[in-house]
Structure formats: C-alpha cells, structure tokens
Amino acid sequence: MRPMSLTMSAFGPYAGVEKVDFRMLQGKNIFLITGPTGAGKTTIYDAISYALFGEASGSSRDKDTLRSDFASPEVPTYVELEFSLKGKNYTISRYPQQNRKRARGDGFVFKSAEAYLTLPDGKVISKVNTVDENINNILGINKNQFRQIVMLPQGEFRKLLESDSSEREVIFRKIFGTEAFEAIQRKLDEQKKSIYKKISNTKTQRDTYAKHIEVGEDELLVKLINAEDLNVIEIINRTRELIKNDEGCRKKFIEEIRKLKTKQEQLQKSIIKGEEINKKIKEKAQLQEQYHCYLLKEKEYGEKQILLEKGRKALQVKMVENSFIHGQNNLNTRKLQYNQAEEKLRQWEKNIIICKERLEKEEAKENGRKKLSDSIATLKNLEDKVKVYEEKSLMIIKSRENLRNKENFLKELRLSVKDEKINLEKANKELTEAQRAETLKEKLDRAAYEKELLITEMRNFYKNSEEYIKKVNKHKENSKSFDEFDMKYNEVKTQYELMEENFRRGQAGLLAKNLEEGLECPVCGSTHHPKLAKFIDGVPTEEKLKQAKHDFDKLKQNRDERLQKLSDLNGIIKKSHEILIEQRDKLKAIFTEDITKIEFKNMMHILTSKGKEISGELNSIKEKQQNITKIQEKKVNLENNIKKLSEHIESKEDLIQNTEKEYTEIYGKVKSEEELLISIEKEIPEEIRCFTKLSSKIKELQQCLSTLEKAYRSAQEDYNKANTTYASTKADKEVKYKNIEDATREVELCKEQLNNKIKEAGFKDYTEYTSLKTSEEGINLLEKDISQYWQNLKSLKDRVEKAAKDTEGLSQIHIEELMADLKKTKLQEEDLQGEEKNLFSRINNNNKALKEIEKINKDIGEDEKNYGVIGDLAKIANGDNRDKITFERYVLAAYFDEIINAANVRLRKMAGGRFILKRKEEKGKGAKQQGLELEVFDNYTGKARHVKTLSGGESFKASLALALGLADVVQCHAGGISLDTIFIDEGFGTLDPESLDNAIQCLIDLQNDGRLVGIISHVPELKERVDTRLEIIPTKEGSKTKFHY
To answer: Coiled coil: which residue ranges (predicted)?
Structure first.
C-alpha cells in the first residue's frame, strides 16, 4: 500500500479542508514530518489509519474526538485517502458520527458514521461494515497488524517485538495465509473426537444388544451379562450353546404337539358321528308327537268345511247389500249439502248489509284525501334546499373534525420529536459504549483461549493419572498373583528335579542288576565290577518322568509368560509415569505448593477443585464475551438507528410547519361556510332540515293517502262481490233440494232387491245372513287352512315311517365324555405351544442379538484401527508433542526464521553488531504453546535474553529492524500482501549518535527498494540527513501543511 494523497476536513488541528499530495515527493521515498509539538504531525498518521480502518493510529485516541475545535459548524469532518496497491488505485472516504448544521433553518442534526470505498473499476462500496471487510481483504491485514508492521505509532512500536507466540501466530496467519494448516489441525482433532465418540457409542450399542439376550435359566450367562466389564467373546460362545440347547428342546415340543393334534382329530370325528345319531333319534320322537297332535284336530276341520260352503253363498248376497249401503250413504250426503247451502245463504244476507255501511263511510272521507295530496306537493318543493343545507352542515362538521385531528396530530408530532431526541441521545451513549467494548473483547478472547488450553491440560493429566493408578494397582495384583504362582512353580520344580535324580540313580542300579563278572559293561566296557550300584525300589519309570517333564515345561512356560506380562506392564507404568511428570510440570503455575512432593492421587483431588475454579473463571470470561458480542452486534443497528432518528426528527419538524399552515387555511373556510348555512336555516322549518326526516315525512303522508284510497276501493269491491255471491248461493240451494228427492227413490229400490236375494240364498232372514257372511279373503284363507291340514297330516305320516326305519338298531351316544377328552388334549397342546413359542422367540431374539454383536465387533475393530492413526496425527498436529508446537506454528516458525534473518541484517548495522534476534527453540515451562517466542542474543555477554529486557533505544532499533524484515519477507513471498510503506512516530530520541546514524542509513537504504518511509521526529540530525520534509504549520485558524524539498 502506497499513499497517493490525503485529504482532511475539520480533522484534529486542521480546521478546513487540508490536502497532502504525496505525488509531490517526485520519487523521493523518505520524508520527515516536522513541526512544533501539538501542530498535528501524528494527526497525519491518525488520518491515514482512520481512513483505512476507522480508528486513529494510537490506541489512546478515540475516533469520536477527532473533530477539529477550530472548524466552523457548517464544515463537515471527514478524511479521504487515495492509495495505490499492486498497480491499482483505490479511494476511501470516512465520516465519523457528528452533529451537522441543518441545511434549512437553525440547529443541528446528528449524522451517523459513513464510509465509501471506490474500487479501480469505479464501483463504489458504502456502509461502514462492508467497507471495513473489503479494506481488510484488499490490504491483507487488520488495524492491529497495520500498527505493528506498517505504521509504528508513538508508544506502540514495541508491540510486534514483545508479542507472545499466540499474538504472533494470529498476525503471521493472516499475512502468510496459513489458515489451511490450522484447518488441518482442527479437522484432525474433530476426526479423532468423532471416531472416539463413534467407538464409544458403538460399544454402548453392543452392550445394549448383549443386555437384551434372553438367558433363560443359564446362571453363568446371567453373571456374564450383568458384569460391569462385559466379556463379549465369552457371552457369544455361551449364548450359542444356549441357542443349541433351546433348538433341541423346541424339536421335542413340536413332536408332542403333532401327536396331540392327531388325537384331537380322532375325537372330533367321533363327536360329529355321535351328534348325527342323537339328532336322528330326537327327530323321530318329535315327528311322532306332531302326528298324534294332528290326528286330534280331524273333527274340528270337518266343521270348518261346512262353514266354508255357507260362506260362499253369503258372498253372493253381499254384492246386492253393497248397492243398498251405497244408496243410503249417497242420500245422507245430499241432505248435508242442502243444509250447508241454506246456512251459506243466510250468511251472505248479513254480509250485504255490512259492506253497504262500510262503502258509505269511505265515501265520506273524500276531503281528507285531497288535503293529504296538497301537503305532499308542498314538502317535495323543499327537497333541493334541504339537500344543500345538509351538505353544507356535513362539510362544516368534517372540517371541524379535521381541525381537531390536526390539533391532535400536531400534539403527537411534538411529543414524538421530543421522545426521538431523547432516544437519539441514548443511542449515541450506547454507540460510544459499543466502540469501547471492542478493545476489551481482544483481551477477553486471549484470556479465554489460555484458560481453555489450561483446562484441556488438566483434563488430560487427570485422565492419565486415573489410568496410571489403575495400572499400578493392576501391577500389584499381578505381582501378588505371580508370587503365589512362583511358589507353586518352585515346589513343582523341586519335585521334578528330585524325580529326575531318582530316575538317574535307579538306572545305574538297574544296569548293575544285570551285570555278571567277566562280562563287559555296556557303559565302560570293563569286565571287572568290584563295586556295583545298588538297585533302589520305587524308581520312576521313563514314561512318568516324561509326563512330569511335560507338566513342568508347561508350568514353566506359563510362569515365563506371566513374568513377561508383568515386565511389560511395568514398562508401561514407567512410560506413563514419565508422561505424567511431564504433564505435571506444565501445571506448576496453578499450584502454590511444591507439586513434586504431592502424590498423583492427591493431585487429582486438587485438580478437581482447581478445575472448577478455572472453569468458573472461564464461564465468567465467556459471559463477558457474550455481553460484549451482544453490544457489538447492536453497533450497526445503533448507527442505523441514529441515522434514522436524525432523519425522522428533521422530517417531522418540517411536517409540523406544513400542518400548522393547513390548519389555518381550513379554519378560515369553515367560518365562511357557517355564515351561508345560517341564511338557509331561515327558509326551512327546524323539524325537516334533515333530508332523511323530510323524506320520511313525505313518505308518511304518502302512506296515509294510499291507505285511504285503498280502503275506498276495497269497500266498493266487497259490496259488489257480496251481491253477486248471494244470487248464486240461492240458485245452488234449490238444485241440492231436488238431489235429495232422487236419492230417496234409489234407496227404496235397492232395499227391495236385497230382501229377494237373501231368500234365494236359503237364509231365513237378514239376521242369519249377517251372522254367516264373511269376506272373500276370509273364505280363501279358510279354504287354504283346510287344504293345508290334510296335506300336513299325510306328510307327517310318511316322515314318521321313514324316521323309524332310519333309527332302527341305533342308541344314544354320550357326547359330554368325548368333549371332555378333547378339551383336555387342547389344554395340553396350548401349554406345549406356549413353551415352543417362548423357545422360538428366545432363539430368534438371541440369534439376532449375536448377529448384531458380531457385526458391531467388526465395525469397532476397523474404527479402533483408524483411531490409532488419526489420534496420533491429531496429537502431533495440535501441539501435544515434546516441543509443544502445532502444525501451523511449525510452518510459521520457518517464515519467522526468514523474518528474523532479514531483521538481523539491519539490526547489526543499527546496534553495531552487538545484538541479533533469534527464535527461542528451547522448551519453555508449563503447557503454553510455543515456537514463535523471540529473544535477543547479546554478543557482549554471550548470552540470550528476553526482548522485553531491552532498553528504550534498543527496543526501538529491534522493533524497526523487525518491521523492516517482515516487510522484506512478505514482499519476497508475494502472498497477496504488499508492504511498500512504513511510517514511524518518534523513538529516534532514545538513540545515541552512532545508533541514530546507523538507523537513518538503514531507512535511506530502503529507497533503493522503492519503499516509502515517513518519519515523525524532533531529532536535529534527522533534519540534516533527510532533505524532503512535510512541515506542519500551526495558526490561529488551524494547522496547514507544506512540502519542502
């Protein structure tokens, strides 16, 4: 990044618009910024830093205090920086939050912070957050890194020099783009945790399947499954044996069930056959009983036959009787109709009199109808005037309502403006608080990171201590077991050696037993045997000796194996102890006492307490981080809210003025309309000034008139109708009287015909006929009943004969005994089926469980193999190694070595060869991550020491050399970051003449690389050596700038 021009408006001591054009340097790449104290030299750096990052170059200067006290109210505060980067030009402008004078009227309006970035293609990016993000991406560094490697502000030039490993890691990661290595570390750790979690979950799943095995009455399998540490292989083998036994039992049950089913089939056949025989015997008895009952009814059906014949004769007479009855009914109907006509005639005589009186009454109301008609015409003539009056009244009411709304609206607007001004003041205070919180968050992030690392080390130590103690206890148990076994081994060894000795001796006696004087000895060949070995009874045979040797060798192999396992466990314990000692040393910082004197078991109790304490501190830090994050998240909203509030206030104040003007206009119009309304009121009666009431009155009169006219027409119509109806009713009465006479003659004729027919049918008189007559349907039913009786009687006789033939030689079967036997066999079958189903369910369940357990065992084996590889890689990559260096920090250390080498080239010149910088490679104390620590080697003493022990002048030279070295390495690697500018504020006053001369020469040498160097200093020697100066001239109206060549 190389500045081209810098424009400041009402910024710091610069009252107006002040432009510094760096193009005027004309190829001179080193310049001095001079001027009296307080003139505004550092403000040049502040302006560049504020333009790029929205903050001043020094952490002690607040961005909200940068407005010039010299500036007039109408001049806005802003900074504009034009710079070039990799051959492309960019322009960035920033406006801090400020109160600006209103464009119209008096007073000020609050304006939120603004930022604008113009890219090489002419595209303009706005909004503060978006500009911040883009400028960081373009430069490749953030504000804190900018202060440490490009701009060394007064009082802050030592930060890069004295930063710890963690801080340098963050700086170098951004510069050299090593995020991928850090991502690899994180990915490996995530994979390790994921595989471990998967193995743990899979084992839990396997244990769950094992717990679901149905053990039956196998007590050993119960103990295996209920054990805390499951022996999965033993469980699998034992379960397979259980399944095999269950399958054998199940086959036996199935065979027993088959036999019971065969027996049930035979019983069911016997029951069905018995039920058929019993049914035939029962049916025979029922038929015999029915046949006897039918024989008893034979006389009754003979009498029914006689009644049937008489009923048929009475049916012939009934047709004549029906004609006689019809004639009587007709006569009664004609008499009723005549009486009704006579009564109707009397009623219409009365109606004629009533209708005539009503008509005369309605004719007398003619004058009333005429008056109503005249009144309606008069009211209709007033309709137009009432409409005008009503419209004017409504308009005045609406206008007055509008006036009241305007008054209320103005009142609400004024209250709203007052509230928004209060909210604006509150938002400004909250924004200031949010800006201050950013500095605190960086410290909290660093503290949280260190606490989390410490907790991780404590957890690792605690876990390893637990495992170590378990191994020690196991070693004690195994040692005790080995000692007992070793005693048994020594006893057997002694017995075997004694047996072997007896065998050897016995062999000599056995050989001597068969020797004879003069014969050669098969051992020595001698023929003379002066002293023969004695033969001993009870000597072991060779076979017994071989068996004893085989048993002893097997016992010895077992002992050797136990001894080897004990030795291996001892080696593991020693290695674990070394790791614990190493981990314990890292935790010295959290103990007040000498931890070398504390046992691991006691340390675990202390760590538990300390862990809770540190976790509490971490939770407190995280809570503060969350609060600060919430405050920062509110920052953008606050800035937008402040801008909106300011705009709302200005808009509402303009609206108040416009509303007051509208209120005055409406008020004048209302007064004019009210005077016109008073003149109209005089022409219209008060009760009908409303058009609705007038219309209602007209409608009411029209209804009255209509009612009178309708009543008159109705009276006329009713009178005419009454006269007509009376005449027609009188004629109808005469016709109905003649009908009665005709009906009487017809009844007499039918009566004579009926008496003749009764005599012809053989009945004594009408009484006998009525007692024997019945309907045709009744005759048919009686005839059918008689016929059915004779048919049923014959059918029953045939069936009785057939049933007797079918049951000949058969007897009753006892079905209950057969059913009892069948029920008993079914209960036995159900019991066996229940047992068989339980076995089948257990076999099926256990087979499934075994299948899942074996599948899971295979998966666990593969995962544990992967965990062995990934786990080791994750530990090494994340710094859990001897040197405490992560993968990314190992890569960054290589870059750091290049930076140090480049820095030492200049430091040797500035320090006269006394000091050189070097990366600290020795392992430090504690669990802190290392690899980027810096120390200085003093050639005078021949010893290395921490860079913080350097004096002020020495620190300045080292910091300057380190910043220049970093720029050289970054330029060399071309990692997307261009550092071709450096600004230095003070620091030269701490140097002796020789060091000063060397430092100036190093800066002048930078011109050969085309790098721009800006220096603020009061040291006279600098003014003599550097020709190009930017002079800051203070005046009463504010400072001015001027280049001197």
So the answer is: 331-457, 621-662, 698-760, 815-866
